Amino acid sequence: MKKIVDVQIGQVETGKGKVILQSKAIGSCIAIIAYDPTRNIGSLAHVMLPGSAPAGKKPSEKTRYAANAIATIVSKVSRLGSRNDDLEVTLVGGGNVLNRADDTICKDNIESTLQLLSKKSLKVRAQAIGGTDRRSVSLDVESGIVSYSEGNGSERQL
After folding, report:
1. How remote is the C-alpha of 45 from its chain's centroid?
2. Which domains does the chain have, with CATH numbers?
3. pTM
4. Mean local confidence (pLDDT), 61-74
């Protein structure tokens, strides 16, 4: 039986083997999924904001920000034996779910996340970002399969 771990906004969870990491109701946020297929190690971050956390933020609030979440992913998978070169990254989210012309947080989240991943030499292998629908995503750490859904649609694999 696989353990299911729900990843809430601002959290980063990591697992090895028989674990499913999942996050739901992803609007303008970005779910960053990192997976090491050689060691069956996976991590999922539910990022709310672009850039880095301002000084003075509580440690539990820092991973709401893309830079801090990515650093946490790298640290956590490294402790389980993975290296950046071994990671495959998938991105899900960044939707303008309120359909506002002046809403830039989704675009800012996407741009910030892509830039920060590039700086860490982490390659994005698949993505389902942008648009206007909310999304849900899961990573089966044992198999490496990333599944997502948009709106009320059926689940698809990335």
Report:
1. 4
2. 3-157 (3.30.1330.200)
3. 0.95
4. 97
